[in-house]
Specification:
By secondary structure, the protein is of the alpha+beta class. Helices cover 16% and strands 25% of the residues. It contains nine helices and 32 strands.
Length: 617
């Protein structure tokens, strides 16, 4: 008889193995989840550290918070790469461990806005791009040559360089670098200005120190006319050609520190960084007593965003009617205005040449250069030229600076040339002349019977010149040293510069690439290349050209160090995002040899001396 078959069941060892594999799978999933979470947190912290100098998110505030504390605002700007500038050679002292006893005489309890000797001063600091801290102060007790220091919240210090006096408020300005150890802290607090680098940042147990204002969102300048007030604001109309309605805003005028006690007037125009509104009633109690204080006006002005119930941080001061409009004794036919940065060695050639062909006055908006521009301007004025500088330290505000000049000098000049210092206008018809004439611009470039004409703007095409084999700046001048340029293939797409009739400028003051929007009834006139051309010495020897990497001056042009919009016409063909000299730079952009202006300038200006021929610059 056959034995019955036995049933087969898993052995104990097999069950244990299955259970072990199940447990391991769960552990592996858990480990992968933990690793993924750790990587995500690490990436978040890394991005936060890298971007947080430019991102500041806070919960909404009541409608009107402390006017000196705008920390509730949220905004973001694109971080910028470091630039090569002498400012970054400043010595920054990082904090050391505290070894001094608490009984030290250091200024621990001082106000953050005072100079260390105890004299109370009013100051406000703004975080500019590239970690520059710009300080606007009323330091009546500090002289321009005095050694001062910025002391930050962790007691790190950096030298405070005198940056000039704001011409429209007479306030003193300084510039220092934010130390690297402070860049890791949040929030950034306003620094202390001190005469000693050994002073300490004051302890404030009962309140939070004021935060650094951010340049990306700020009312920074104002100008009064007989009829209205012009306010310049960064961060509202941020995209070129797209402007918010003036109905969305009010101008807010207040004295002291509380904008809730203020006077508001309607905004009538909103374009680019320019906002126009009515003058306030100075007899209102909130502003009473400020009228007539022309030397040091203390009425603040800002912009209110009605829908958000937000007042934009401000360093702008209001001056009563006509207090800030440029006085004039006589009106010039033709002037020139431009924004400059470290142009002292180029300026004499530009001024002397254009003065001899008819430009009577030159207005330079100094964008915070650190060369000896003042000495160069003083020397030109001693020689009989009329050159004036206006400190305009605000980054990337070329359009706003041009708007300002169009109003500020409207009663001083009929026509304004908006050319840069590396741009020279001339007409081929001048080659028949043995000597220049201060009427050449009027005869050759302005319209016939221009006083009766409806021409409001004259546009002139540019020739872009290359390095022309040069490795250094030509001592004889750019008109003599750079003689090779790019070929013109599509004249209609050429860059052009303008001569503008100031009374024809549209009230919004909008301008793009050196030309303005005109009032109704006026029109622009384009000159052909046979009539006039602007020689733009754009691509110079590399030591000069690489300074363009510092920062582009237009509010709507991306800085070259930012890896966005690489096809922009503002960028140089074949150039990367770092100031590294391209191969064969000296021979680039050389398609046509053009010595027309070189020969003309040599004939007009070269003089024989005992040591040979020299130029007057």
């Amino acid at each position: 008889m056959a034995k019955p078959s036995a049933s087969i069941s898993p052995s104990p060892s097999l069950n244990s193995l299955v259970a072990y594999e199940s447990v391991m799978r769960r552990r592996i999933r858990t480990a992968l989840l933990l690793v993924s979470t750790a990587l995500f947190v690490s990436l978040y912290l890394y991005l936060h550290i890298r971007l947080s100098p430019f991102v500041n998110h806070r919960s909404p505030s009541p409608a009107y918070a402390d006017p000196d504390d705008f920390s509730y605002l949220s905004y973001i700007t694109i971080p910028r790469f470091p630039v090569f500038t002498d400012r970054q050679q400043l010595i920054v002292i990082e904090p050391e461990p505290e070894t001094e006893p608490e009984s030290s005489n250091r200024s621990r309890g001082a106000s953050i806005s005072e100079v260390a000797d105890g004299a109370e001063e009013t100051a406000v600091a703004i975080l500019f791009p590239d970690w520059e801290v710009f300080i606007v102060a009323d330091l009546s007790s500090a002289s321009p040559g005095e050694e001062l220091h910025c002391i930050f919240q962790n007691n790190a210090t950096s030298p405070a360089r005198f940056a000039g006096s704001l011409p429209f408020s007479n306030q003193t300005t300084f510039l220092c670098l934010l130390p690297s150890s402070v860049r890791r802290l949040r929030p950034f607090s306003q620094p202390l200005i001190s005469r000693s680098s050994r002073d300490h940042y004051p302890a404030m147990p009962n309140r939070q120190p004021r935060e650094l204002l951010r340049w990306s969102f700020l009312a920074y300048e104002s100008l009064s006319t007989e009829d209205d007030v012009i306010l310049f604001v960064k961060g509202v109309n941020s995209r070129q050609g797209i402007n918010r309605s003036p109905l969305e805003f009010n101008c807010v005028f207040f004295s002291g520190g509380d904008p809730s006690v203020s006077v508001r007037t309607a905004v009538t125009s909103s374009a680019q960084e320019v906002f126009r509104c009515a003058h306030p009633d100075l007899t209102v109690a909130a502003l009473e007593g400020s009228e007539g204080n022309m030397e040091k006006p203390r009425i603040k002005i800002s912009l209110e965003i009605l829908r958000e119930k937000r007042i934009i941080p401000t360093v702008a001061l209001y001056a009563p009617k006509s207090a800030s409009v440029q006085p004039t004794t006589s009106k010039s036919l033709t002037c020139a205005s431009t924004m400059v940065y470290n142009v002292a060695k180029f300026l004499p050639e530009w001024v002397i040449y254009h003065s001899r062909i008819g430009v009577e006055r030159f207005f330079l908006y100094d964008n915070g250069g650190d060369d000896d521009l003042r000495a160069t301007v003083d020397e030109l004025n001693r020689e009989g030229y009329d050159v004036r500088t206006i400190l305009w330290p605000w980054p990337k505000t070329q359009e706003a600076g041009f708007s300002h000049s169009a109003v500020y000098y409207r009663d001083s000049c009929t026509w304004m040339m908006y050319f840069d210092v590396d741009e020279f206008v001339y007409s081929p018809s001048w080659h028949d002349r043995e000597q220049p004439s201060d009427q050449l611009i009027e005869w050759s470039l302005l319209p016939p019977n221009h006083s009766q004409s409806n021409i409001g703007q004259i546009s002139i095409n540019c020739h872009d010149f290359g390095p022309s084999g040069r490795r250094t700046h030509p001592a004889e001048g750019v008109t003599q040293g750079y003689t090779c340029r790019r070929q013109i293939e599509q004249p209609l797409e050429q860059r052009h510069k303008s001569i503008v009739r100031l009374q024809a400028v549209e009230p919004s003051l909008s301008n793009f690439i050196h030309h303005f929007i005109l009032r109704d009834g006026y029109r622009a006139m384009q000159l052909g290349l046979e009539a006039a051309v602007v020689n733009h010495y754009k691509y110079q020897a590399w030591p000069e050209f690489q300074t363009k990497f510092r920062r582009r001056v237009s509010a709507y042009v991306v800085d070259w160090t930012q890896t966005v919009n690489p096809t922009s016409k503002d960028r140089t063909p074949g150039l990367g995002f770092k100031p590294i000299e391209p191969k064969d730079w000296t021979n680039k952009f050389c398609e046509v040899t053009d010595e027309g202006l070189k020969e003309l300038v040599r004939r007009w200006f070269r003089r024989r001396t005992s040591s040979g021929f020299v130029m007057p610059w």
